[in-house]
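Team,

Forwarding the record for the chain on the shared tracking sheet. I've put the sequence and predicted structure together so nobody has to dig through attachments.
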Amino acid sequence: MERREFLKTASIASGLLTALPLSKAFAAAAGDTFPLMDLHVHLTPTFTIDHVMEIAKKTGVQFGIMVNPGGPVSDDAGLRQFIDSLKPYPVYRGLQPMSPGWSSSFAPETIAQLDYVEMDPQTIPNGNGYGETLRIWNFDTYVDDPQKFMEIYVAHSLEVIENTEPLNIFGWPLFLPVCIARDYYTLWTEERMQKILAALKKRNLAVEINDMAHTPHERFIGMAKEQGLKFTFGSDARSDIAGRLDYCKYVAKKCGLKRDDFFFPKRALNKA
């Protein structure tokens, strides 16, 4: 199952996180104290940049379009084509690598044309006792030993954060596969979260608040804010749900996030 297929059933996984404090006020919790930017949107043959621009016009949300390395974006020519395709539009341009080592495929000067790089730790080599590479967005991810998995997952997260490749945003923080999501608050202990936060602080990375996965939770956001870390909103959308950001707005308001708490790409956007 590819990531885009996972997104069709992500609501099932989110439903397991029953402790999240959702309410009727959830969708109405937006304020004007933080920027409405969705920096995690993907295009598809049926969800094009023109669709994104229409949403931006209707909502006032600013967008960042990301692409995963691989396929047509496997070398400098492919990455330049992606960047050039977005130049006529008032959107940010981002890259979402899946595994460390990605930067060897691209020249530094080409990477520098991006507005940001976001990476998450969801592809985990030797992630269970069977030596399998886990892609934990998949519904059928197999975890045989939750505590051992968490040790491996935290170590892999630190590898993603601490490697020397370009990186600006840590995506999908604290996400768990469906099979253990019900134990979210038990498995993400204070010690484990502190390890992640210390590494993020050392590299001065922004933390994505992910609208699709409803992660991270309020406690982690508060801890990150205390560390002076910046935040982004991301939908990981490939459809008209891009820019809705209801969870992001809800939890940001509840945690008292302000404009100064957010990461902003350096490049100024041209008006449409």
